[in-house]
User: What shape does this take?
Amino acid sequence: MEDYEIVLGARKEGRFTAVDYICEFVPDFVEFHGDRLYGDDSAVIGGIGYLKDVPVTVIGIEKGKNTQERIQHHFGSAHPEGYRKALRLMKQAEKFHRPVLCIVDTSGAFCGIEAEERGQGRAIADNLYEMSDLKTPILSMIVGEGGSGGALALCHSDAIWMMEDAYFSVVSPESCANILWKDIQKANVAAQSLALTAPKLYKLGLIDKICKPGDLKSLKEEIYQQIQYLKGQRIEKLLDDRYMRFRKVGY
Amino acid sequence: MGLKTFFLHANNELESGGQMLRPRKVCCKECQRQIPVSKIRKNNFVCPECGYYFTMRARRRILMLTDKRSFIELDRDLESINILDFPDYDEKLSAAREKSREKEGVICGTARIGGKETAIFSMDANFMMGSMGAVVGEKITRLFEYATEKKLSVVGVTVSGGARMQEGMISLMQMSKVSAAIKRHSNLGNLYIVLLTNPTTGGVDASLAMQGDITLAEPNARVGFAGPRVIEKSLNQTLPKDFQKASRVLECGFIDAIVPRKQQKEYIEKLLVLHDV
Assistant: This one.
């Protein structure tokens, strides 16, 4: 399959969205709202619940399933409040020694005047900065679209997992083609060149595991094992490993 | 040093004539007046007539901000490679090297500022619009690690269009890498002052530009995450005139102070002294 087809597939309606994963992994999920600073962003869902016998904090970027839901969730593009809600819940997770699971599916951070003026850049920067030092395990999963900085803001983790049919890219192939060649028709060339598919990213050492889509039950078991493993690490080692995980990127 | 390149860039009309001329005057992009280059240079690359800020090369910026002959460059030989085999990237890199006369889009090192030993980095707009690829991220990360080890303050000057697309996710993850290094530097009580210059956008805005203890900006600098044209297109409306301008970003609460070029060295010196223990 062409890489661009994977991008298009990752955007299709009818895929599992963050809610599906949350319902499967954490059936007793309790949702929490608000960033305590400005508002509540419906593009980001956050809360706590049991992953089997382990209490976890789960944060997901939700796109919605139909047009009405998609509008309600801002098409899965988070405002600064969304990233700040995520960070607030992660800090809470740190306090109560709960592991954090991030489920990422976004075409990118919300693009608009208000988002800019409320500090979209600062919100993402804060997440990267604080997550690098969050004293509890973090596991991130790209389940559909991994759009640029808006997705990265929930991926400063101990491990980044990715669905086989998801993509994770520095820029959308369309924007890339438009910027470099002034031609959106060349999006497929851009997609091919950007190394945005799970196998390519795995080969580059940027993600840690490729997951088979569809079978949520075995995925849940794998996540449980991973979280147990991370929980078993001393915090100093966990943070050093997290530092090195990103430190080695590109060198 | 560097001034020749500066002339040539400020005068694209002259270059397009086929022959490289070395003009004594430069046309200001804002007021369109012909200004003698010597005057602009003396005025820290600010138009003496209308106050327009010409883009400064990274090295010249370091000279302006640091004590004479105190700058020692670090990691100057790191160069990018076309790791993804991205179309036209090799050509773009050689063009950028020629245009900027630098090996990469950021210059790092140590220098004294008001007599105080400091780590400093300065990004270069002439190198692929200051975009952050693996080498830019690596150099800045190494600088913060060095500063952490030596307990030095870091002064950083940003100018960037964001992550460098041609390096794909490797460049995006430089945001994470740099952020973690800045956090470690901060955790040990070290100071990071960042000076945002025109433009500071995209992935650089969403990481190292917004992680300083003290955030300064140049007058009129564009500071923001998403590009204005992208927002305009997606909203289908024209943007307010001061949108993403330093003055507005300050009003919104994301900048501590806007400091004119002439005062920047003195201003930063004062901040460094205030943090001296």
